[in-house]
Design a protein that fits this description.
With about 260 residues, the chain is mostly beta strands. It is built from three helices and 13 strands.
Length: about 260
């Protein structure tokens, strides 16, 4: 069991309840990363399902969860031969923090019938760069759990030179050696800085809702994460992410709506 497996572990209490312990190692300046929290919820939903893979997840983030004990409550909405739909709610102190609908199915790993290519080109891994290590007082502990190498123009905002477009591109893998799986993909779709940073905004940008799809089981190796946005306005922005594996297959897609950062 890797550190990430342990940090996302869900222990069955009964057929509708799982105990979890939210790990402080996945903080983004205080709040826990939304992708990490989805991975925790998905552990419970998949364990309780007859199907092996979370093919689509729609999460509404009601409030910021904190490290420590929590529970995942499950309600099976539909059970079928090819898919199961489950409502899964992350609860702390008897209050709901994330409300999700998860559809599980079983993917075969078959080659796609049709696919297009990535929405943007990436330079080779050796030409990409890390973000500077955060200061300890920043409580950005997520950085130590993952290895992310960015396409340099997309982090120009660090030096006061944003591209002016909502975008983000990087190679991604866990810091501890681990082949990517659906739970790592749940983290990957929400692991980059908000694309609105590249458009010139700064500050914590809380996600309101995020939907992501597991399109294929990923091959070992680096993941390529490509993020973009279509509209920034009235204090809101959208973010689309696609994740490609080392074999050149589209393995995950997501869209989220978030508040423009403040501070």
């Amino acid at each position: 069991m890797t550190k990430f497996d342990e940090a996302t572990q869900a222990i069955r209490v009964d057929e509708t309840t799982y105990d979890v312990c939210l790990d402080p190692g996945y903080s983004i300046g205080g709040p826990l990363n939304g992708g990490y929290l989805m991975a925790v919820i998905l552990r419970a939903a998949v364990d309780a399902s007859a199907h092996a893979h979370p093919v689509t997840t729609s999460a509404h983030f009601l409030r910021a969860a904190r490290p420590g004990p929590a529970r995942v409550h499950l309600e099976q909405v539909k059970t079928g031969r090819t898919a199961t739909v489950t409502r899964a709610t992350l609860v702390q102190d008897d209050r709901p923090f994330i409300d999700t609908f998860v559809t599980t199915a079983t993917l075969t790993g078959a080659a796609p019938d049709w696919t297009d290519g990535p929405s943007a080109a990436m330079p080779p891994v050796e030409q990409c760069v890390k973000l500077p290590d955060p200061k300890p007082e920043s409580n950005m502990t997520l950085n130590a759990q993952v290895e992310v190498l960015f396409d340099p123009p997309t982090i120009g905002w660090l030096g006061g030179e944003p591209t002016g477009r909502p975008e983000g591109r990087a190679y991604f893998r866990m810091a501890e050696p681990q082949d990517p799986d659906p739970y790592v993909l749940a983290l990957a779709v929400d692991a980059l800085p908000p694309v609105v940073f590249s458009a010139g905004a700064r500050g914590w940008a809380p996600t309101v809702d995020l939907t992501w799809h597991l399109r294929a089981l990923p091959a070992p190796g680096w993941l390529t994460v490509l993020g973009s946005g279509r509209l920034i306005g009235d204090g809101w922005f959208d973010e689309d992410v696609e994740v490609w594996d080392s074999a050149g297959r589209l393995v995950a897609q997501s869209r989220q709506l978030a508040r423009v950062g403040r501070g």
